[in-house]
Every structure is written in C-alpha cells, then in structure tokens.
Amino acid sequence: MLQNMRSASQHWLGKIVLTIVFTLLIAGVAIFGVEEFFRGGSSSTVATVGKTQISAEAVRAAYQNQLQRYQQQLRRNLTPDQARALGLDRQVMSQLVTEASLDQKTRDLGLAVPDAAVLRAIHEEKSFQNAEGKFDPSLFYQTLQRAGLNEGLFVREQRSVIARLQLAEAVAADIHVPQAMREAVHRYSTERRAAAYLRLAPSVAGEIPAPTEAELEGYYGANKANFRAPERRSANLLVLSPDTLAKPEAVTEEEVRKVYDTQKDRFGSPERRTIQQIVFPDEAAAEAARKPIESGEKPFEAVAIERGADPKNLSLGTLTKAELFDPAVAEAAFALQQGAVSQPVKGRFGTVLLRVTGIEPENRKPLAEVEPEIRKAIAEQRARSGIDATHDAIEDQRANAKPLADIAKERGLPLVAAEAIDAQGKDPAGQPVAGIPDPDTTLPAVFRAEIGGDNEPLRTKSGGYVWFDVTKIDPAHDKPLDEVREQAVAGWRAAEVTHRLGVKARELQERLEKGETLEAVAGSVGVNVEMVEDLARNQSKDNLDADVINRIFATYVDKAASAPSGEARILFKVTSATMPAYVPGSPSDKTIESNFRTALADDVLGEYIAEVQKKAGVSINQAAFRRAIGGEY
C-alpha cells in the first residue's frame, strides 16, 4: 500500500495516473459531461487493452485538457494541425493506453482497494482541506458539485487510481543503483580540468584573395540551400473583431457616467486604511478595556500587552474595505476617524477593538480623462454581442462569391493586403508585415490554402474572425548566382578563413606534439598564451564556450587539440585533471542514488507496461480516434 499518494506523483507514471482525478476534476471534466466520461458513454470505443475499453468521451476530455494546458503554456491558440505537429494526439493516446494497461493488470491480479484506503486518500488531498489542514466535507462536496461529479463516480475513479499506484510501486519499489554506476556519475560530474590555450583569430588565416569564378561557382553549387528564396504568398485578409465593429461615438454620456459611477475601483485606487485590532473573549471584556483607552488612562498598546498580544503584531495591514475578510470589521474600521478606537465589534473570530492609524484617501481619475476608455469598452462589449450575426452575414456574402474587398468596403471593415510575405509574415526586405491578426494561426492557414480555394474563417484570440483569399503564390526557388554574388563571396571567404584556421591549428598542434612549448608556438603566430582553471563539463567559462570546454574534456592530459569558437579557433593543451575522491554513502552519493533510482524505476515501469500491453493486446480504432479529437486527417 502506498504511504503517500503525493510522493508517487513525482515520477511520470504517478503523474499520469493522478492526472485523471484532480486535473480533470478541477480543470476540465465539465467540458463534455463528467458522468458520461466515467460511465463510458454510449459512443464508440476508441481503443481496447485486453478487455479494458477506452471510450471516445475519455479521449475527447483528455485531449481537450492537454490542449488547454499547452495553450496556457504557449500563451496562444493552437490549430488542429499545430497540435498534431506537437504530438498532442499521440501523447494523449499513449497516456490513456498506459492507464488502461494498468487497470487491466490490476483486474487480472485481483487487486482490490479497501474503502478505508480510498477514504484516507480523499482526506489527505489538499484540495479538500481547510486553512487548518483538516478535511472539510463541505469543501469536498462543493468541489465535486462545481465539476459536475457525484460522490459515487469520484470514489470509484479514486479507487482505480490507487490500484494503479499500488501496482506501479510493487513493480518499481526498491530499485538498486549499482555502486559502479554511482561512481561513474560522480567522476563525470565532479571532474575539473585546467588548460592553456591560444585564440587563433581570423587574421591568423592571412590575406584572403578574391575567389576565382570556378571557386565561387563551386561554393555556390555546394551551398545552394543558403541562397534559396522562400515561398512567398500574397493574400487579402478581412478582419472582423470587436475592435473593428465598435462604434465609441454611439455611446451616450449617460452610459459613460453610469459605468464611471458604478466601477470606481477601475479608474483609480480605493481608500486604504492601516488598521489595528485587539481580540477579546466577549463584548463585556472589550467594553471594559475600551473605556480606559478612550479616557486616556491607558494607551491602546498597553491594553494589547495586558491581553498577551505583542504590540508589533496588532496591525492587520493597510487594506481596502473589500480586502477585509470580516464584513463587520470592515464596516466599523471604515467608519472611524484616524486615531479613534471603535466600540466593541463582534466579528467572525471574536469580539475586537479596532483603531485606525493611517488613511490613504481614494485616488480617482477625473471622468474627462477616462471617458475615451469607457466609451471604447462599452462599444466593444456591444460589438461582441453582435459579432456572430455579422459573421453569418459575411458567410452568406462569401457563399454568393462576393470578393472580400467588396465586403470590407460595404461593411467598413479593414482589409489587410499582405503582399509577397513568407511563412513568418515578413516582406522581401525581411520586415514584418503589419496588420496580420493572430499570425501564429493565420499564416499557417494562408500557406496551406490554394488560389481560389474555399477557405473557412479563422477564429481569433479576441473573439473575432479572419477571412482570407490567396491571390498569388511564388514558389520557393534557388536564386541565381548573379543575384546573390555578394553574399556568395562573403560565404566563400568565411569558409576559406575557417579552413585555413583549421590547417594552421593542425600545423601548430604537430609542433606541440614534437616538443615545442606553447609559448614558442604562440609567438610564431603573434598571439598570447591564456590559462583557464576549474573547468566543468557543459559549462562555459571566461572566453571559452561549452563546446570548446567539452572538447577539452575529450582530450587526454598533456595532449593538445583544437576546436572552432565563433569566427576564431582555439588551440589548447590540457594541463591537469582533478576530481574529489568517491565516498560511498556520502550526501552527494545518496543524491546520485536517489536521482538514478527514479530513472531506473521509470525504465522498469516502461518495460513492464510494454509487456502488459503485448500480452493483453492493444487495438486502436484510428477513425474513431480522429473523430474523438475533432479532426479527419
């Protein structure tokens, strides 16, 4: 039995099996109907593992949740093609097949989870605990209700999750990490090296003459891909958005004034007060303490000390009225004059005396300053309510083959004429073309379409639409040498410098191997010897990048080698290699063991699941899968 479900969620399998409960519970189960999801629904089965079925509803819900997570991380919408390019469909199916494999195996083994284990797991879940860390039944039922779950369905799925984790722990528990492996990792990660080196700048290559025609043609022929013109397209884009439909001038002054008066906090900062409080057991004790404070006999702080409170901890902070959790405290505090002490206030957590020690007045922008902003907001809100009707009307006009330019003119909508743009939305000069809405979505669609094609409108992040027609396609092609001669000469020259530096470095390396000192070699080419110490793998240092340093670690001590570094080349000689002694059982060794135990457990679990699937048999209905995720391809 697992001691703690959350500890299991730290490796990939734990995350997979726990995700179906809490991610879908909190984030997305309601999208397609939770009850249908857990029941399996009446639609076709997408896949089976042995006798365990994966329903279309399960696939659809998991795919939509994965898509939403990716879009939140990328901060943009993904088209179906982009989602498939990222492999979201394969990830979701792999996850569901893995879960089904574990469910099938738990049934084959006759594993059963007792009610007490399910109850304990639910009580330990932080989503159902109050501020004191205790299980709160009302919070539990509220959370299930918001997600559309009933208790029976949730408990049934929770029982399944625990069974999967039991099986996973039984397979991968107590994995042994061999000492030889731990020592090899220690050596790799703790070794440090020192080296002496020369930086061979491009000037060391000497004077580079202009290339002959034959040399230039040879370089051009071998590097045509560097001089290839990308595909360019021209397209007209009709943009429909709340911003384009909005008519701020149609908003009346009364409407502006109403918003200004009812949304005060939006146009400035509300009044804030610095509030102190002393808590008493009842109203009588609070009143008895208030009288000497009001008469001046005792200061507020002295009463707090008598109550066992630290005067430094009396302040609730500087807060707005809305930020105070207790309504009674908020009303009383914001009715006081600065420095005054309140009557006893019966709050949610006891009877209190309040004192206001500072007041920051409300700071509100004048109506004239924010009027344009309010007008625009009201107009855009109205436009959103009418955007679907405008969409349908434009679709009718498109069905009648009306050109986008005519529709734009008739409806007063912007028409973006994107001329000769590449797939990144740049013009031939390499500058971004302005006005293309949601380019991450629009540009791929434009470059998939054909001239004269019937293109579906694209939905924008702002809630609008984009219609587009491709008017011209210039295919990608190789630019002739005469057109790119200048770039070709520059490329040939850079390649020649790189070649000559490589030849020079080999020549100098041979001299070092014959016994010459690094100082003598450096003097022959007019450069200085530089020293570097405490080098670590995969980490740049001083003027050496990580690639050069990794080449140093690949070279024997007292041996020389070279590596490219930007336009220059580094010739180096390894002068020393050191590492701390390996101590079995040391803190660093235990860290290595812990990290690799997780990695090995992942491998073992992966092999086990693959074997379960092989024996049980996995069948996927590709057509049903495509329908479930919303795309035929």
UniProtKB/TrEMBL annotation:
InterPro entries: PPIase_dom_sf, PPIase_PpiC, PpiD_chaperone, Trigger_fact/SurA_dom_sf. The chain crosses the membrane at residues 12-34. It is a single-pass type II membrane protein. It comes from the Bacteria. One of its GO terms (molecular function) is peptidyl-prolyl cis-trans isomerase activity. Residues 270-358 form the PpiC domain. Keywords: Cell inner membrane, Cell membrane, Chaperone, Isomerase, Membrane, Rotamase, Transmembrane, Transmembrane helix. PROSITE patterns: PPIC_PPIASE_2 (PS50198). One of its GO terms (cellular component) is plasma membrane. Belongs to the PpiD chaperone family. This is Parvulin-like PPIase. It comes from Methylobacterium durans. The lineage of its organism: Bacteria, Pseudomonadati, Pseudomonadota, Alphaproteobacteria, Hyphomicrobiales.
